[in-house]
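Can't attach files on this board, so I'm pasting raw text. These are the components:
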Amino acid sequence: MRTLRLLTVGTLLHAKQISRSPFEVAIALVVPVVQATLAVYLFRSGGEQHRLLEAAVGAGVMGVWSSVLFGSGGAIQNQRWQGTLEMIMLAPRRPALVILPITIATGVTGTYALLATLVWGRVLYGIRLDFAHPVAFVVAAVVCVIGLGMFGLLLASTFVLMRNANALANTLEYPVWLISGMLVPITVLPAWTTPIAAILPTTWGARALREATSGGPVWPSILLCLGISLVCLVIGALTLTHVERRARAAATLALA
Amino acid sequence: MKTLRLMTVGGTIAYRALFNWTTPGMFVGTLLVGPLFQLLFFAYLGRQLQVADDRFYIVGNAVLTASLACVFGGTMAVANERRFGTLGHVLLSPRSRTAIFWGRVLPYAGNGLLIAVVTLSAGALLLGLRIPVPALPGLLVAMAAGSLACGFFGLTLGALGLRFRDVWVVSNVSVALLLLLTGVNVPASGLPGWMVTVGQWLPITHAAEAARQIAAGAGFAAAAPALGRELLVGALYAAAAVVLLKVFEVESRRKASLDTL
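---
Top answer:
Structure tokens for the assembled complex are below.
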């Protein structure tokens, strides 16, 4: 119960902190809306008007991934720049438990993108929010955010080992959008991408949301997203513990 | 000759000092691999939706990829001087502001051209697009024109950095808007009229059109009007950047806010 409280309060704290940044909020709202607009016109040009809601949801999930990728990838570096890394590492809890709320918070603020694209589609393009499974959509969205937050912990713990983590983050945005089938169906991609897609929680999260939108077996995708995310959480926690011990021993915790 | 030296040497030194992606790993990851996946993303999306053929997406997105280095580079040329506290020193120089800042754009435009060439080559190889050899010089000119226009567009955004604190929001949104409004990913016939009109006044739009004509074998002469329009758009942004830099410099001196972040 104390752990759950720590995660909840920590997530709320960091979500509030991220939401205070005009840059983060502007990017989370405006860029996904531009991408949703692009997707709407592309789908219309391709004669796929009946899939506009799917396009809006896909663009929103792309925004969630961008938020997690850049937010979680730079989570530890950001704490370092703020001068708060030592303080949170001094907390008498496991390192993963104090960093995980930050990465989940990046997923939570990523939902601004999902909400923005849905509202934008409804208001401007009259896209009816007729979800095939409305309850499952909400569950899928929550699982997707928490799952990507767990995946974010893995990103945070591995990116901190690299000096050029920003380059990796910039590199990973489009490949994950593409391979996870957020807008482009996986079936049109080369066959060698299928195994990579299968181990990414983003693939199953995006698939669950798409199936909840247009119909399909939502729950297996939700469970797979959660399962893969838990594996990422375990690997991320182990890596983070190792990195933290190494940084303490070498007295480099606060050094970039 | 002295002005030319100021533009090239000054521009090169500023590029090395201010461009944040100077390590090879960051350069390759951010400026070569990322744009290639952007091209692949839209090419596969276009294939699936059957909006246009591969040439449309590969050539258009290759020209567009120059915008990443040019828009952010042009912004950094001004905004990072301010961030690192060296803008005052630059403005104390007795040389022409216009030459100094236009010179800043040149390395970024060259960088954008390199990215466009690499992205086009890799995209064409991966997706099996055949480009006729006689079309290559024309394509290079079209991509260079797009990169230069985009660099001046970035410099105009950078000038806004003297007035607004968070110019990076403007740069990020601008790069996203270029994806939508330049007609690189949605044919002009599929966009509302006002978006097409706005796109006509943005860099890349005409360069992408020219590059597509050249890649289709229409010849350089057929693409010349579009190239002329691209260069005109670039010249307009170059002039706008100079005016804005002058206006905001005067205002910053008056309000003593030159180095305020």
